[in-house]
Amino acid sequence: LDRKVIQRVLIANRGEIAVRIAYTLREMAIEPIAVFTQPDKESLHVRTSRETQEISSYLDFKEIVRVAKDIRADAIHPGYGFLSENPTLAEECERAGIIFIGPQPETIRTMGDKLESKRTMQKAGVPVVPTWDGDPPANEFPVLVKAVGGGGGKGMRLVESPAGMKDAMASASREAAAAFGDDRVFVEKYIRRPRHIEFQILGDAHDNAIHVFERECSIQRRHQKIVEETPSPVMTPELRAQMGAAAVAAARAASYRNAGTVEFILDPSGKFYFLEMNTRLQVEHPVTEMTTGLDLVREQLLIASGYKLRYAQSDLQQTGHSLECRIYAEVPEEGFRPATGKIEIFEAPMGPGVRLDSGVGQGSIVTHHFDPMLAKLIVWAPSRDASIERMKRALDDFVLLGVRNNIDFLHRVISASDFASGKLDTDFIPAHSQLLSAPGVPPEAFVVASMKPPKASAAQDTFADVWASGPWRNS
Amino acid sequence: MTNYVEIAGKRHRYHFVYGRDAIAVWLDGRTYYLPLARPQISTHHASGSTGGEVAALMPGKLLRLEVAVGDIVTEKQPVAIMESMKMESTLYSPKAGRVAEIRSQPGQTLEMGQIVVVIE
User: Cβ–Cβ of B29/A395 closer than 8 Å?
Assistant: First the structure.
């Protein structure tokens, strides 16, 4: 098979993932081209790029391919979200002679249809969650209404009884139409308190497919992951072998080419079911990178250029443990409402085993135009316990002021004793509702707030007197 | 650079910024929001109506209105649907009454706290 040369890549995305993709491209001596819409013209992914192009929308695939042609890009990297799982972009690329860094359009289309993907997996012998096209039998409640074209919790509703079906279907359908341009919804058996465990897969154009171990993504709010890790604390070599084999079977059934993710749910009895396949780079891919040494974006580029996979299954092994926390502009204490504003102070945590994939920096404006995820904080350590301690330390060192965020909440989550003992499931947050309340304000915070805003240089002050005689008491 | 201060013989790392409604204080790794003292915003009309204003809970776009002027509504009845960061959320009537005013229209971008519907 002939190999294609990729020299210039248009990154059809924004935020942290656009920044992260550009890192690898530059390390490969490939020129990245950033695109942006008007509200993003001062964003970090634009400011850090030497070549940028304004577009009218991150969702206009025709415009994006036209821009890629105009600037003589060889390839488009879609990132995640936006057009990454839209087969029309992959098709438009094919027509224009541009390499789409992702799987074939047919794979995206089949796997993007959450009903069709389950049929494909069932045929391949991969266990799937019971699913219905319309109203399920009354004894199957509770059920989840989900978007056929969806993901990320959008267009999803939990329905406890048949009476709630009509409203849930209608509202999920509207949300799905707005988010994915496809209003079809289906119904799935709701498995109580499952774990969400997914496998990273890689497939090439030469019929090779491997998995790159699991990621546990059970800590979720509003059906969206906020803390991810690998290895999963529940994983045994036997279960990993079974689930890994199912993931590779899924990759083969989908003729999967490039990097993808096979999502499973694992019920409390240890049975696992195929949930869906994400035909793109996953938000939480860094934990896989930290424990295997792979750069998944580099692998994507090599696969898209026509190279064979560089690893056989037996070549891969994991070292240590990695944990990721998603930093969101939101207020967990107020129902996770999204927050906006200007980031006045931004100090990133540093030190051994700490990685920050960020789409923002000091001075960034956070608006309601885009997803509220600002950054991902990732740590690596030799063991899970050490990884948790390192993450707590890194969250302690993270200063992000000006936009309300979930940093303190994440610290409370990973400090919970059930988190430490690995007792995780997708209802972890609602089942630990005490995590949703902020602790009381210590008197020292009032002391600080009463001070003059700090100067850049001489930053030290002594407030012993205020403590002794001020209006605040350490009661 | 992190600032530090000594309070009662102990060193603390800190930062703080003034927001519109609160001072955000970062102290030794945690952030606290201290509400700024400001005049109470009255939810009462001159006519003496009692808190029937339905306001946007977050910035976003008004998708649909579920009521029209003159409609009789019950407490907690959905009155409007908004969308923020691609998620739908429902605004509910705070009390039983009649829809007196519609102040925002579908498609409009709303600030947090912006009034959508007034119930009397």
Answer: yes
Least confident of A70-84, A194-208, A399-413, A459-473: A459-473
Contacts of A50 (CB under 8 A, 6+ apart): none
Confidence category of residue A152, pLDDT binned at 50, 70, 90: low
A and B: number of Cβ contacts within 8 A: 116
Closest to A46 measured CA to CA, from A32, A65, A56: A32
Question: Which helix (H) or strand (E) is A341 found in, with range?
Answer: strand A341-342
Model ipTM value:
0.85
CB A82 within 8 Å of CB A40: no
- Judge if the upstream peptide bond of residue A231 is cis by omega within 30 degrees of 0: yes
Reported as a single tens digit per residue, the pLDDT across A247-284 is 999 999 999 999 999 999 999 999 999 999 999 999 99
| Contact partners, residue A170, CB within 8 Å, separation at least 6 | none
Say if the Cβ atoms of A370 and B85 lie within 8 Å.
Answer: yes
Question: Looking at the predicted structure, is the pLDDT value of residue A353 above 90?
Answer: yes
Tens digits of residue pLDDT in A377-430: 999 999 999 999 999 999 999 999 999 999 999 999 999 999 999 999 999 999
Give the gap in angstroms from C-alpha A201 to the nearest C-alpha of chain B: 29
Instruction: Write out residues 8-27 of B within 8 Å (CB-CB) of A.
Output: 8-9, 12, 14-19, 23-27
CB A259 within 8 A of CB A296: yes
pLDDT tens-digit map of A56-94: 999 999 999 999 999 999 999 999 999 999 999 999 999
Residues A447, B58: C-beta atoms closer than 8 Å: no
A236 Cβ contact partners less than 8 Å away, ≥ 6 residues apart:
none
Q: Is A320 on the interface with B (CB under 8 A)?
A: no
Q: Is A239 touching B (CB cutoff 8 A)?
A: no
Ramachandran assignment for A48, one of left (phi > 0), alpha (psi -120 to 50 degrees), beta (any other): alpha
Cα B99 from chain centre: 20
How far is residue A44 from each of residues A298, A379, B104, measured CA to CA in Å? 22, 22, 34
**How confident is the model at residue A223, as a pLDDT?**
85
Query: Best residue in A175, A362, A368, A409 to probe B by mutation, most B CBs within 10 Å?
Result: A368
Distance from the B17 Cα atom to the nearest Cα atom in chain A, whole angstroms = 7
Could you give the CA distance from residue B33 to residue A358 in angstroms, rounded to a whole number? Answer: 24
Query: Which A-chain residues 332-361 have CB contacts (< 8 A) with chain B?
Result: 337-338, 340-341, 344-345, 347
Nearest to B86 among A154, A337, A408 (CB): A154
**CA dist., res. A466 & res. A125, Å (int):** 70
Query: In whole angstroms, what is the distance from residue A388 CA to residue A420 CA?
Result: 8
What's the pLDDT at B41? 42
Cross-chain Cβ contact B34/A445 below 8 Å: yes
- Active site (catalytic) residues of A: 280
pLDDT at A51: 97
- Using a CB-CB cut-off of 8 Å, the residues of chain B touching A333 are none
